[in-house]
Every structure is written in structure tokens, then in C-alpha cells.
Amino acid sequence: MNKDELLETIDAKLDQLNPEELISPESMRPIAIKTRERRQLAELERELLQTLEEIKSDKRVPNIITRLANVYLKEASFSRAIVLYELTLGLDSKQVNAWINMGQAYLKISSPVEAISCLGSALAMDQRNALAMVFLATAQLKLGELEEANKNLDRAIFINSNMTRALLGKGEYFRAKGELDVAVTWLRRALSMDPNFLPALMELGSVYLALKRYEEAVEVLNKALKLDPNQPFALSTMGDVYFELHELESALYYYDKAVSIKFDDPELWIKKGDIHKALKSYQQASNAYQKAINADPEHVESWVKNGAVMLLLDDEGTALEYLNTALALDPTNAEIAYQRGLIYYSLERYEEAFADFDAAFSLNPSNPENLYYRAMMLELLDRKPEARRTWTVAQRLYEEIGNVTKVAECKVRIRRLVQT
């Protein structure tokens, strides 16, 4: 296939998929099964990139690569989208929408600093681009730069006072400040402009959940799901509402639907696993936590959760393996060290248990439980003077937090050690 045929064929395939020039965040979701046309486009993309050096001077190439990047962004393939945006902007850096879309991609992979850089580039070329200002504010909110975010939202609203996404941003800003009732006011204002503005409905449902206004949350989220029955955030938030209402089967129903759509989200799998665990369906809980690990092998909480449920399944060896991995991923996590110490203790591996409780105490010296078990291991290892000193410190910590039962236990253990 010669150059012209290749570019024309890719262009035609992109016309079939018809990706928007600006991808909305709520429309981004992974594709489980790719269509024949999508697979063909991927093959054409590979051919394009193999011959890029020869054809990059063709004026059609930057736009085609940008449209390919937009397809990946809509499919929630954020890393691949970023690679292509970098490529197309290297060929033509004046594509404002490409900078905005790349900024969104960085936001989705929790890289707000890079997002700010992209959105700043967009605004350098189009200083009155209100959408770039809103996404810039979103990135600043993620960094905790609340007042800078608010300034950009105000600028966007000054440019377009009816811009629903900017009004949504104000709601998110006040939520970040902890002013939930004010957030509700701004979100309702956005919905007064467009009653079917899906992101505002979802955010309002989430804020109502935070306010424990569950009936209103369900009402708003039902409206969102009528607009988009497969919106994973709305489904997940609905699950959260029913979880708070202790209607676990209903919560599981919504988490199941959410995870069937956004199957690469470890947080959703964890929510599903937690419901199964609460229902004492431990094997199903483990299966869900394993799916979370598969979605993101470096997601520490997934390893810890699966380790905990393995203990409930009386599989201490596997539980230990999971916690070993979790601690390798996050060596300074006191809670993981503590949990692994408990497993070593149950296996009567007291030296290793002591090392973990000692590490947990070093990382979190304010938690008396770490000292409690450290002292217990010292007793079992017949290191009585050290044990007595540790029980004394633990007693003081328990006194500070008002745990009378533990204080009494520490005193008994200290007396016993003094007598021996």
C-alpha cells in the first residue's frame, strides 16, 4: 500500500469510528472486545508508524495521528493515547485540542503535574479557552492547589457564565474545601443550565452520599443512569449508597454492573470483594481481589485484601505470600508489617513476627498495638527485660488513648515479669 492509499484508508476507518475532537471524561471507558473495523485500524496504525519517517512531512499525518490518539483516549487506553499525542504534537505543536486531550489523559493516570503542563501549552495558544481552564483547575484540585483552581474556574465562568463544566468545577472545588452544601448549590446551578448534564448529576449524587442524604443520592443517580445505563461511576456510586444503607445485595448488583464495564479498575474490584467478604463469601471475595491485582499488579491494597481473606480461608501460607508482595511494593507501610507479623505469630515464627512488629512500631510509633505484639514476641523469645520495658511504654500509650482494658493487661504482664 503506497503512502496515499495508506493515509486515505486510515482516514476512512477513522471516519467510521468518528472520534470527537475533544473527548469528554465521562465518555472514556475501556473496550472489552474490539470490532473488526477497530482491529483493522490497529493494523493500519502499525503500518503508519513503521513508515512514519518517510511520510511525516505530509500535512495529513499530524491530524491522522491526533484522531488515532483520540480513539485510544475514548477507549481509556491512556498511556497509548499519550504516546500518540506526544508524536503528533512533535509534528505540529499548534493543535490546541490535542494538548487538552493529552492533559485529560494525564489526569486519568493521576499525573496532574504533566496535565498542567499540557493544559498550559493549550492556554499559551488560546488564552480564552475556557475548557482548558476547567481541566487545568481539575489538575490543580488534585494537587491541593485550591485557590489557584478557583481562580481558573472563575476565569472560565467570566468567559462563559453558562458553561456547565465550569459550574461543575466550582462544585468540585467547594467539595474539596469541605463545604458540601455550597457544592450542592453550584451543582444544582449547573443542572439548571442543563438538566441532563451527566457529570453534574453524578457529582451531585456523590455529594449527597457524603452528606448521608441517601434518598436524594439515589434519585439523582437514577437520573444519571437513565441517560447512560452503562456509566461506571454512576453505577459504582449507587453501589456505595446501598453499601451505606447496609443493603449489600443491592450494592453488589451495582458493583457487578460497574466492573463489567470498567473491568480495569482495581478500586471497583475491591469494592466487589469487600461486599463478598461482608457476606462471608470468602472465595468470591478472593476472586474479586485477584481481579484487582490483575488490573494493577502494583496496587498494594489488593494484595493486602487478598492476604486478609486468605486468612479467613485458613490458608496462612498464601496469605503470607500476598503480604510479602504487598510489603515489597510498599516497604514503609506499618499496617502491612503489622498484618504480616500477626501471620508469623500464628505460625509460631516469633523472630520474624518480632521483626515485623518492631518495623511497624518504627514506622508508626503512636500505635500501641505495634508495641503490644512486640512485647508479646519478646516474652515468647524469653527476652524478659526488653519485654518489660516495652509493656511499660505500651501501657503509657494505652493510657493516652483511654483504653482501660489494655492498660490493665499491660500492668498484669509487667507484674508477672517482675516476679519471674
Account of the protein in words:
- This protein has 420 residues and is mainly alpha-helical.
- Among the domains are: 126 residues, Tetratricopeptide repeat domain (Serine Threonine Protein Phosphatase 5, Tetratricopeptide repeat); 102 residues, Tetratricopeptide repeat domain (Serine Threonine Protein Phosphatase 5, Tetratricopeptide repeat).
- Helices cover 78% and strands 0% of the residues.
- It contains 24 helices and no strands.
- α18 runs antiparallel to α19.
- The protein starts with a helix and ends with a helix.
- The model has no long low-confidence stretch (mean pLDDT 95).
Concise synopsis of the structure shown:
This protein has 24 helices and no strands. With 420 residues, it is mostly helical.
Tell the overall outline. elongated
What's the level 1 CATH class of the domain at 1-126?
Mainly Alpha
Question: Percent of residues in beta strands?
Answer: under 5%
Total strand segments: 0
Topology:
Layout: H1 3-17, H2 36-50, H3 52-55, H4 60-74, H5 78-91, H6 96-108, H7 112-125, H8 130-142, H9 146-159, H10 164-176, H11 180-193, H12 198-210, H13 214-227, H14 232-244, H15 248-261, H16 266-278, H17 282-295, H18 300-312, H19 316-329, H20 334-346, H21 350-363, H22 368-380, H23 384-401, H24 404-419
Helix pairs in contact: 1-2, 1-4, 4-5, 5-6, 6-7, 6-8, 7-8, 8-9, 8-10, 9-10, 10-11, 10-12, 11-12, 12-13, 12-14, 13-14, 14-15, 15-16, 16-17, 16-18, 17-18, 18-19, 19-20, 20-21, 21-22, 22-23, 23-24
